[in-house]
């Protein structure tokens, strides 16, 4: 049996830019093991499976080539765009069930492009108590390239990542990650990814520039444009860098060093507790078939 997989590029309106997501409908037809096998064969940073839900309009499950994720921003954007293409969305506002919780989704059109807005989980931060020189080395940088004005912290709006402030944009071209070293560096949360960023940007409308290097357990090296990491970056900006009157939106650029230019909007709100939503557009690229081993 061959499984149809849609290739959707998220956070870009141009095919083969942004972040590629595999999208598989009728996810309830497959076991967890089959989903993992499909994601491994697809080879994208994440493949999203659209399933039925008793608690929301849809359930989404996300798999890297190596393991399942609780939440994936670009996988959500891709899946919602695919559902829209097939006229399967119940309305412009609906909910999705994820392993990070029930999240509201809103879609609208801007400049004739579909934009998907996705609520994130409540921001969390944890201190990084590792060795900064060891961290810099794992990124292929000198320790002096780390921006010590701001804290290095683990951040989470659905998935943990290590947020690393960098002084200059020029450092991002030099980065050569050694992902196999990450668990030794990230002793507090060894399975997490590393997300370096800076405040110098290529495009003036953006507040931050970033790259995202995957956990070695994911089976990938770099994630071109990351939704959940961008979401927690926006929360980091509000918490540690500059407190803006809320609501406030910051735009983040990513993927430029690897030819996968993309942009994520991060929408910050809340009075007693900071809330985070991300938004982005997407584009259909193609559909291909994957055959499961052991299936006829």
Distance between the termini: 5 Å
CATH superfamily of the largest domain: Diaminopimelate Epimerase, Chain A, domain 1
How would you characterize the largest beta sheet? 17 strands, mixed
Structural class: alpha+beta
CATH class of the largest domain: Alpha Beta
CATH topology of the largest domain: Diaminopimelate Epimerase, Chain A, domain 1
Overall body shape: globular
Query: Mean pLDDT across all residues, rounded?
Result: 95
- Helix and strand sequence: EEHEEEHEEEEHEEHHEEHEEEE
Considering DSSP H and I runs of 4 or more, what fraction of the residues is helical? 10-25%
CATH architecture of the largest domain: Roll
Bin the strand percentage.
Answer: 35-45%
Brief overview:
The chain has about 300 residues and is an alpha+beta fold. It has helices spanning about 30-40, 75-85, 130-140, 170-175, 180-185, 225-240; strands at about 1-10, 20-25, 45-50, 60-65, 70, 95-100, 100-110, 115-120, 125, 155, 160-165, 195-200, 210, 250-255, 260-270, 275-280, 280-290.
């Amino acid at each position: 049996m061959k499984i149809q997989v849609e290739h959707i590029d998220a956070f870009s309106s141009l095919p083969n830019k942004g972040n590629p997501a595999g999208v598989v409908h009728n996810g309830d037809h497959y076991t967890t093991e089959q989903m993992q096998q499909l994601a491994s064969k697809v080879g994208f940073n994440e493949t999203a499976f659209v399933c039925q839900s008793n608690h929301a309009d849809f359930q989404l499950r996300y798999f890297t080539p190596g393991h399942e994720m609780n939440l994936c921003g670009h996988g959500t954007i891709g899946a919602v765009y695919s559902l829209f293409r097939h006229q399967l969305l119940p309305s412009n506002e609906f909910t999705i069930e994820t392993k990070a919780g029930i999240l509201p989704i809103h879609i609208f059109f801007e400049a004739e492009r579909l934009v998907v807005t996705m609520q994130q989980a409540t921001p969390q931060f944890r201190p990084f108590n590792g060795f900064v020189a060891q961290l810099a080395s794992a990124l292929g940088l000198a320790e002096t390239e780390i921006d010590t004005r701001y804290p290095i912290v683990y951040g989470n709006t659905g998935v943990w990542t290590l947020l690393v402030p960098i002084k200059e944009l020029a450092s991002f071209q030099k980065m050569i990650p050694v992902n196999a070293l990450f668990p030794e560096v990230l002793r507090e949360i060894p399975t997490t990814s590393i997300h370096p960023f800076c405040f110098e940007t290529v495009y003036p409308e953006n507040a931050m520039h970033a790259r995202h290097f995957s956990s070695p357990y994911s089976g990938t090296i770099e994630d071109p444009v990351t939704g959940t990491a961008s979401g927690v970056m926006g929360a980091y900006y509000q918490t540690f860098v500059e407190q803006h009157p809320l609501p406030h939106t910051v735009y983040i650029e990513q993927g430029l060093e690897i030819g996968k230019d993309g942009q994520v909007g991060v929408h910050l709100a809340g009075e007693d507790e900071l809330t985070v939503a991300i938004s982005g557009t997407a584009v259909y690229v193609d559909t291909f078939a994957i055959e499961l081993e052991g299936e006829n």
